[in-house]
Structures are given as C-alpha cells and as structure tokens.
Design a protein that fits this description.
By secondary structure, this protein is α/β, with parallel strands linked by helices. Helix content is 32%, strand content 19%. It has 8 helices and 12 strands. It has helices at residues 2-20, 61-71, 92-103, 174-184, 188-197, 223-232, 246-258, 279-287; strands at residues 31-32, 40-44, 50-52, 55-57, 81-86, 108-113, 121-127, 200-205, 210-213, 216-219, 235-240, 273-276. Strands 1-7-6-5-2-3-4 form a 7-stranded mixed β-sheet, sandwiched between helices. The chain is globular.
Length: 294
C-alpha cells in the first residue's frame, strides 16, 4: 500500500516537473530571494495550467483555499513569501488576478521569479488586501469572471481579449500594510485621509519602454523623471494597460523597482510603496472620488 502511494506521488511530481518545462521565465529581476527560505510556490504554465505547491488546481478560488489549508498546518515559522513562476508570454491580466486571489487571505512578499530556476533573481513586492474582496464581478469579464482556470486548449474566447487600445508582520510595515488593506477593502474615507497626509503619484505602463505620467507619454529611459517620481513620493499607484503580456510588465516594472530607495520612515520596504491598481478596481475608487489616473 505504502509503495503504491509512493509511486503515485513520484509520478505526479514528475508530471508537474514536466509541465514546468513549458514555463519560460522573464529576464532581469533586480531583487534576490533565498530559495532555502520557507515559501509557497505558484507555477502558471504557457498552457495556463496552474499549480500551488506542485498540486494542480482547477478553480481560481483554490488559490486562497490552498493557502488557508497550508496555514492550518503547524509550522516553526509563518510563511511570509510566495514565489510565482509564470510564463513570460502569458497575459499580465492573469498574473494580476493571481495576486488578488492571494490577497484575499494572505499578506507578505510576492516574488515574481526570473532568470531561471536556480538563480535568486526576482521582482519582490509587499502585498496586503485584494480588489476582489469587496466587489463582485460579472461572468462576462474575460479575466475576473470565470471561476475555472481555463487552459489554452479549453478556452475558446481569446478573440474577446482586448488589445492595447482597448498575521501581523514583525517588521516595520505598519502604515503601508494598513493602507493597502483598507484601500482594497473599500474603506474610502480612511484612504482619503491617508492620501491627504502622504505624497503620492501614479503612472500607467503602456509598453516595456513607455508609460503615461501626468497625462503625458513618457519613456522609461528618462531616469531623471523616474528618480523624481521615486524620490518625491511615499506612494506610487501603478496601472498596467490591458492587453500587455507578463514580460512587458516585468521589463517595465524592473526599471521602476530598480529606482526605489531606502527611507527610514518606510522601514524595511523601499520608497515609494507601490500599489498596483487592476483595471477592475479603478472605476470603483473613481466613483468614490479618488482620481488616480488621468
């Protein structure tokens, strides 16, 4: 009996590894994460097959339930890191949904893995809260509507995808943690009060080389402007234009990440604190008189 279970487990694990071979990671992460540290993993393959800690999941809400199941297990240390291994050609909107499915039940550091499986390279961001917690989305929404994680072979609606046109932490992240949680929990009054006390700005990623800032198209190669944005603001809201793939997002975000700075008032998190606003949430906050993007 034990031998049979062991063989089945090994075959299942080997199948997962074979599936991971189809993941081509982006290049250029400017952060490092020690892979020996305790962490969870999410793999999202080129064929849109998803695995949490090497177990195949078929429904989006299984991301949150899988995390809760793991959190119930006794551990010496709380798990404060999740690594995402996602194929660079996937639509970024799916990666965005993964982040917000995670945020329903967990806060900590997300590490978007890059440059191969054996390196420590990644992009790392602290997250708390989810745009999906206080909002219901229609089944007609091409990313946030479906309950099933459709693979490439199963999903037939690709033509509807829009184009470019279209646990408390034992570290000093208090105000960032609280603001992010309340921002996504739709605590608009609190968010407005905090925004009155902090310096903030926003930009929209439109390609790997360009972004919209103060209603003007700018180039990421303009490091003087990038530095001005990071040095002068406590908060930076970032929106990624619909239709862009994960690799485009990763290259653009790498430039922003590489120019964030250490600041005593920000604790272990770099300045500015980044909050990424999904397209599904922008209208909600705009309707509540918080205008972030021009």
């Amino acid at each position: 009996m034990f031998k049979s279970i062991l063989i089945t487990t090994l075959l299942s694990y080997s199948f997962c590894l074979a599936q991971y071979d189809s993941i081509t990671l982006p290049i250029g992460g400017v952060n490092k994460f020690d892979l020996n540290k305790n962490h969870y993993t999410i793999h999202y393959t080129k064929e849109k097959e998803m695995f949490f800690n090497h177990k195949r999941i078929r429904f989006w809400d299984q991301i949150a339930s899988s995390i809760l199941e793991e959190e119930r297990q006794p551990k010496l240390n709380a798990v404060s890191n999740i690594i995402i291994y996602a194929d660079k050609e996937l639509s970024y909107a799916y990666i965005e949904r993964i982040r917000h499915e995670i945020g329903k039940v967990w806060n900590g550091f997300l590490h978007y893995k890059s440059d191969g499986y054996k390196t420590e390279n990644c992009l790392s961001f602290y997250i708390n809260g989810s745009a999906m917690s206080a909002t219901k989305y229609k089944d007609t929404d091409w990313v946030y509507g479906p309950k099933i994680i459709y693979t490439s072979k199963e999903y037939t609606g690709e033509s509807t995808i829009p184009t470019l046109e279209g646990w408390v932490w034992p570290i000093n992240t208090v105000w960032q943690h609280n603001f992010a949680g309340d921002f996504f929990d739709n605590n608009i009054a609190y968010a407005k009060n905090i925004l009155e006390e902090l310096s903030y700005n926003s930009l929209e990623i439109v390609s790997k080389s360009a972004f919209i800032y103060n209603s003007k198209l700018q180039k990421f190669e303009n490091l003087e402007l990038i530095n001005k944005i990071t040095f002068n603001n406590d908060l930076l809201f970032v929106k990624t234009r619909r239709g862009l793939n994960y690799n485009t997002y990763f290259e653009a975000m790498t430039i922003i990440q590489d120019n964030r700075i250490q600041d005593r008032e920000h604790g272990v998190l770099k300045k500015p604190f980044i909050i990424e606003v999904p397209y599904i949430y922008e209208k909600k906050i705009s309707d509540n008189s918080i205008k972030l993007f021009n």
